[in-house]
Amino acid sequence: MTDEHLSPQAPFQTRPSRISPAGRLGRVRFLAYNMVLSLAMMALMMILGFIISLVFGGETGEFLNKLLIVIVMIPAMIISVIFLIKRCHDFNASGWWCIPGVIGALIPLVNLIVFMVYALIPGTVGDNRFGPATPPNTALHWVLATLFPLVLVAGVLAAIAIPAYLDYTSRVMMGEAFTIVGDTKTAVVEFAASAFL
User: Picking from 2-6, 19-23, 116-120, 185-189, which range would have the lowest pLDDT averaged per residue?
Assistant: First the structure.
């Protein structure tokens, strides 16, 4: 019986824990695991946020939703840092080299650049001081890793397009309102001119 997480060079190796900083994590698995973490975090926040809004509503619901974001984000950030440490181990660097990634994650747009740098650095071929070579990736890992940049691009495009669309629709509605008011103004002026003259 073979396990996809075991290195072919070490057949009697135990399965590494996904949330332990020990071991290595290849590029594709790094992207795939972060994609799963992001989707799980967003789904959990949306479901619980919806329930909180229905049950509490108002200022209490808003406060509890903000508290929920903090409660969900802290474990997600810790797990993400663990993935980053394992990624550093893959290119034979100490886990302390994840500190620039953690600091970069706090700065908008810089976090994307830093994340992609860590995702694109090639790993060490074969064994290194942090463990055996990473196992081959499955089709699921490749699909999830491919989805990560697509979701990222879609999110950036949505962040740009949605406000622009809302601005456009509000300007169109204001234009329609001015047209209706203008037609009414013309009718009132004509009526007043014919009635008082």
Answer: 2-6
Give yes or no for a contact between 51 and 2, defined as CB atoms under 8 angstroms apart.
no
The full DSSP string for the chain is ---TTS-TT-TTPPPPPTTSSSS---HHHHHHHHHHHHHHHHHHHHHHHHHHHHHT-HHHHHHHHHHHHHHHHHHHHHHHHHHHHHHHHHTT--GGGGHHHHHHTTSTTHHHHHHHHHHHSPPPSS-BTTBSPPPPPPHHHHHHHHHHHHHHHHHHHHHHHHHHHHHHHHHHHHHHHHHHHHHHHHHHHHHHHHHH-
* Token digits of residue 88: 């550093």
Cα–Cα distances in angstroms (integers) from residue 102 to residues 47, 117, 167, in the given order:
28, 13, 35
> Tens digit of pLDDT for each residue in 69-112?
899 889 998 998 999 999 999 998 888 888 888 888 788 778 87
Q: How many CB atoms lie within 10 A of CB 152?
A: 15
Q: Where are the domains of the chain?
A: 16-137, 138-197
pLDDT in tens, 129-158: 888 888 888 888 888 888 888 887 887 788
